[in-house]
Amino acid sequence: MVIKHKIFVLLPLVFMFQNPTFSQVEGKVMRFDDLAILTPSLVYATSSCSGNSIEDPRGDMASDFMDLIKASCYLEGPVLKVTIEVAELPNELVFNRQGLAEGTTEYRWQAEIDVDGDPSTGSSTGSEYLVMAIHRVDDQTATTLPINEGVEAMGLKHISGNSWSIFPASLDINTATNTMTLRSEVPNISEDTSIVVNTLEQHPVNGYLGDVSNACMSPSLSARGYIVHVSSSSGGFEPNLIIANTNMTEPVTSVLEFFNKAGSLIADYEQVLEAGETLSAKPEDLANSQDVSHIGLRGSEDVRVSITYLAQVENASVVHVHESRVQSQRWRFYQGDWDATWDGIAVLNTSDSSVEIEITQYASFTAIRTVDMVLGPLEKGLMVLSSSFNSNEGSYFELTGDQPFSVVSLRGTQDQRYLWENLAIPL
Length: 427
Ligand SMILES: [Ca+2]
Ligand SMILES: [Ca+2]
What we know:
The chain is mostly beta strands. The chain contains three helices and 30 strands. Strands 23, 24, 25, 26, 27, 28, 29 and 30 form an eight-stranded antiparallel β-sheet that branches. The radius of gyration is 26 Å and the shape is elongated. One calcium ion binds next to β3.
């Protein structure tokens, strides 16, 4: 349980540095005596967080831009992305309001990251890292500015006491969706990681005001599903994605992560889909790359993604392959007639360590040949079965691994006109 505190206090502030910009001090160790103002006695998660998003009541703050509504976090390769939604994010804010001392944190939207989920390590509130959008008073003249010009993104790593070192973070502000999206490379994120979000305003008259998320969240380490195989146009099959919001009443966010065959993240793509909306797009256009091999699916569970492959021959018919949500250590599929068709498999290691897979052909319940495949983290393997095995009428193939993986099995006619999914069965 996380205990919620909304704290309205006015504290004297002491800074070692006056109004530096963060780009000037990146990597340096600084003292931030006001970091714990909002959360001096926040009790961090003692049980695991229930998901990668949190919600907070609307209307519990005087200013809408401080009123935390929702937050979510994703791990995109090594980059932690935290999206903070408030009730209303105005286009402009007044910065450096009269009566505030230089160096005061005037506005802040922050994620506190307890990377090991242990409140006894890190800062006084258990955090090893902070990522924030912040404005500190840097001038005695009040100025109205677009919000993205007035605030800076910053990451802080806890050193000791009130000392933190600064590391880079980026910020995207969307006043249409009232969201701030912070991105930063935060090391050692694990399933134990606990993240809370808070907002803070130093008001010249009313003192500190702020909202704290009433629960913690933890980045989902694995995608909820995968498009295991994106065919390459150069291989003769044109791929196309269909991305559908199956929720007929609410807009939802779809996040796609594009990987190359070796398992390196090439690009990610985020899209808000209106209620019931279905999009169609070429993977290479969304990723801005020809190298897309497979796709991790994150974001709303309401989104369903399919891929089509269309052979670049006359009178070909398209095949639709639905996203794969199943991982198993053992899969089976049955051999086709290799005079008329070919059997191929795409195998995806969805874990963060290597997997050793044995592909074994069985005939009359007897293993007749085994071929090994080793895949690194998020690496994909492809095989046309006839390149490694002999046709054996009535045979079947089993794939077994030392940890779970995903399989898509495809069968096509030798003239390439028709291709379809030949069900691979998780056992
Ligand atoms: Ca709120
Ligand atoms: Ca900790």
